[in-house]
Amino acid sequence: MTAFAPDSLVLNRKLPLWYQVSQSLRASILGRRPDAPLRLPTEGQLAEHYGVSVLTMRQALKELETEGLISRHRRRGTFIEPAAQRGAPVRLLGSVDAIVAQQSGEAATVLGHGPAPVPAELAEHFPDLEEVVRYRRLRCDGSNGEPTNWAENAVRPELAERIEIEDLTRWPMTKVLRDAVGVRISRITDTVEARLADPETARLLDVPLLSPILHYTGVTYDDTGRVVDVARIHYRGDRFSFTVTLEA
Predict the structure, then answer these.
(1) Total structural domains in the chain?
(2) What confidence tens digit (pLDDT) does each residue in 33-67 have?
(3) What are the respective helix, strand and coil percentages of the chain, to the nearest 5?
(4) How far out from the chain centre does Cα 182 lie?
(5) SS3 sequence, 114-127?
(6) For residue 112, what are the contacts with CB-CB under 8 A and spacing of at least 6?
(7) Domain of 179: which CATH number?
(8) Rounded to two decimals, what is the model's pTM?
(9) Distances from the Cα of 28 to the Cαs of 95, 135, 158, 244, in angstroms?
(10) Suppose 184 and one of 4, 22, 132, 223 were both cysteines; which one would form an S-S bond, judging by CB atoms 3.0 to 4.6 Å apart?
(11) pLDDT tens-digit series, residues 141-161
């Protein structure tokens, strides 16, 4: 079995290197696929991967060991604790109209669109496809032009053929698919989690590298149970709040 493969990281020299490495590795561990191997690469391999010294890598691993995410064994190596998983998600029920309303209200600029290979992290949603059509959009505050979030959608090619780009500057993808394309949407599964801004997100949202952002993933299903769109939206942490009202 091959070793666990951590995500890459662009280091910010203004923050402690061991902290940045530990947070990146922590995110990789918690966000790993269920079938990912539990054994981590060696200290030297990890240090080379992140471009830091072995001493810095050792300090980062010590932090993760203190959290209970990994265990280190002499001569055997370092292993992810099987119980190191994200907490069980809170599941909330709502309507597609609520999703459309939440995503509406801000003008969007289409940064680009076109066919692209199905990303590895989305392969489970598009098992019958090799390519999707990817759309990238930037939303800005209408009052001051300040960027608030940027979105990337992966859409089935046969549906993308019927999407008008102009509609995407006015409406969220969910509304376009439902009202303009005619997709019978049955449900959307939403996930919101905290992350650190990568270089592209920092540039588009005009925030410092590694500043906190909220990462939204919305998986949209049609009435046959097929995934038609996966939206990944990156929100500025200082411009987004998540409010839920529960009726007793």
Answers:
(1) 2
(2) 777 788 899 999 999 998 999 999 999 999 888 88
(3) 30, 30, 40
(4) 27
(5) EEEECCHHHHHHCC
(6) 134, 135, 136
(7) 3.40.1410.10
(8) 0.63
(9) 32, 25, 33, 28
(10) 223
(11) 877 788 989 999 999 999 999
User: 181 and 159 in contact (C-beta within 8 Å)?
Assistant: yes
Q: Do 57 and 43 form a contact (C-beta atoms < 8 A)?
A: yes
Short-list 218, 211, 204, 213, CA closest to 150: 204
**Residue range of the domain that includes 58:** 17-80
**Tokens standing for residue 20:** 């940045």
Banded pLDDT at 242 (limits 50, 70, 90): low
What CA–CA distance (Å, rounded) separates 234 from 151? 6
- Residues 113 and 45 reside in one and the same domain: no
Q: How far apart are CA 212 and CA 245, in angstroms?
A: 25
What whole-number distance in Å separates Cα of residue 197 and Cα of residue 212?
6
Cα torsion at 194, 227, 187, 192 (round to 10°)?
0
Query: Tokens representing 12?
Result: 């910010």
- Reading the block at residue 186, the tokens are 């049955």
Judge if 76 and 114 occupy the same domain. no
When computed from its CA atoms, the radius of gyration of the chain, rounded to whole angstroms, is: 20
**To which residue do tokens 């990944």 refer?**
232
DSSP 95: -
